[in-house]
């Protein structure tokens, strides 16, 4: 796709540029806790410096991870409870190769100068790290600045992506007045009185998020002020509310407490729809211009539910499947 000719420019003044971050935008690190139980140091080492025969020493205590070696956590006896005989005894150990292999990957954001997990950077296939230089948060803030002069079609693109999620969630009539009454016209999070504010300042939040394909219904709606609606966006209830709040929310909405405190999961009705070839093909055709968003959705559902809706399509290109699989492996 041909890029639009830029018509605005953000002029940066007095930007903070950390010396230790310069030239590090594509350097990937492995991050891990020191295996010394008396040490609390969290170590980072460049991934490209880890060879087959490695030795990585903790800068605080000197404890080293070495290829082929292991750290003993405890000794054990496996007992037969029927006669108290010892079936097996040995040592519980962590292999250093396995420990380093499973360590999470990180990189520096060239804007905020902080080390962050690799998945907090959008993909960029042409970069050495295959990730963008700036983290998603910095990109979001930057886009908010540019948002003052976004083109109409850019607004339309954002709206269409959201429309895709709403379509998949399913629609239902919502009684806004009933929701306002149920929450007594107060923000559920901060208890701010919203009676006298404009309707746009008292938004109704998807209690179970639309990104997990739950529809906004009278039952699945929480009244929040604009500030807390923005904070809650996309988060599962247990990721945002306290346990006491979740219990009150269960009483007010009728959503079972067990569901509110559970791990995030997709709307089973939406998953059922995505097992229908006609539905998947219609999704691909209608939102073909936003294939990257469809791929992100496919990979998130695959991660959370172990379900690949691309497998039910009669039209999706093998090329898109390969790209989706590649993105899935990178994120994992």
Keywords:
four-stranded antiparallel sheet, single chain, 10 strands, 12 helices, 16% strand, globular
Characterise this structure.
By secondary structure, this protein is α+β, with helices and mostly antiparallel strands. The protein folds into 3 domains: 125 residues, no CATH class; 92 residues, no CATH class; 58 residues, no CATH class. It has 12 helices and 10 strands. Strands 2-1-7-8 form a 4-stranded antiparallel beta sheet. The chain has a two-stranded antiparallel sheet with strand order 3-4. Strands 5-6 form a two-stranded antiparallel ribbon. Helix 11 packs across helix 12. It is globular and about 65 Å long.
Number of helices: 12
Largest sheet: 4 strands, antiparallel
Structural category is alpha+beta
State Rg. Answer: 25 Å
Low-confidence stretches: none
Topology order in helix (H) and strand (E) letters: EEEEEEHEEHHHEEHHHHHHHH
Distance between the termini: 28 Å
Mean pLDDT across all amino acids = 90
Taken together, the total number of domains comes to: 3
Strand coverage percent: 15-25%
> Helical proportion?
25-40%
Overall spatial form: globular
- The strand order across the widest sheet is 2-1-7-8
Count the beta strands.
10
């Amino acid at each position: 796709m041909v890029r639009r000719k830029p018509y605005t420019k953000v002029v940066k003044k007095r930007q903070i540029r950390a010396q230790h971050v310069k030239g590090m935008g594509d350097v990937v690190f492995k991050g891990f806790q020191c295996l010394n139980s008396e040490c609390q140091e969290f170590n980072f080492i460049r991934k490209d410096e880890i060879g087959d025969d490695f030795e990585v020493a903790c800068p605080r205590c000197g404890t080293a991870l070495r290829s082929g070696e292991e750290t003993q956590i405890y000794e054990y006896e496996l007992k037969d409870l029927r006669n108290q005989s010892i079936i097996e005894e040995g040592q519980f150990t962590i292999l250093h190769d396995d420990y380093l292999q499973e360590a999470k990957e990180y990189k520096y954001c060239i804007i905020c100068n902080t080390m962050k997990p690799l998945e907090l950077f959008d993909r960029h296939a042409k970069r050495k790290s295959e990730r963008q230089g700036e983290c998603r948060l910095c990109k979001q803030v930057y886009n908010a600045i540019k948002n003052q002069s976004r083109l109409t079609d850019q607004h339309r693109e954002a709206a269409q992506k959201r429309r895709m999620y709403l379509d998949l969630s399913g629609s239902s009539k919502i009684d806004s007045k009933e929701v306002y009454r149920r929450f007594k016209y107060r923000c559920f999070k901060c208890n701010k009185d919203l009676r006298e504010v404009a309707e746009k300042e008292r938004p109704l939040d998807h209690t179970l998020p639309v990104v997990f394909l739950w529809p906004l219904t009278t039952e699945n709606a929480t009244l929040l002020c604009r500030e807390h609606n923005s904070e809650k966006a996309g988060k599962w209830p247990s990721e945002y509310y306290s346990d006491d709040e979740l219990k009150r929310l269960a009483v007010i909405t009728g959503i079972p407490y067990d569901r509110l405190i559970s791990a995030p999961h997709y709307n089973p009705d939406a998953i059922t729809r995505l097992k229908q070839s006609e539905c998947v093909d219609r999704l691909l055709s209608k939102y073909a211009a936003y294939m990257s968003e469809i791929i992100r959705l496919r990979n998130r559902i695959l991660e959370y539910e172990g379900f690949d809706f691309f497998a039910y399509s009669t039209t999706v290109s093998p090329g898109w499947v390969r790209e989706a699989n590649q993105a899935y492996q990178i994120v994992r």
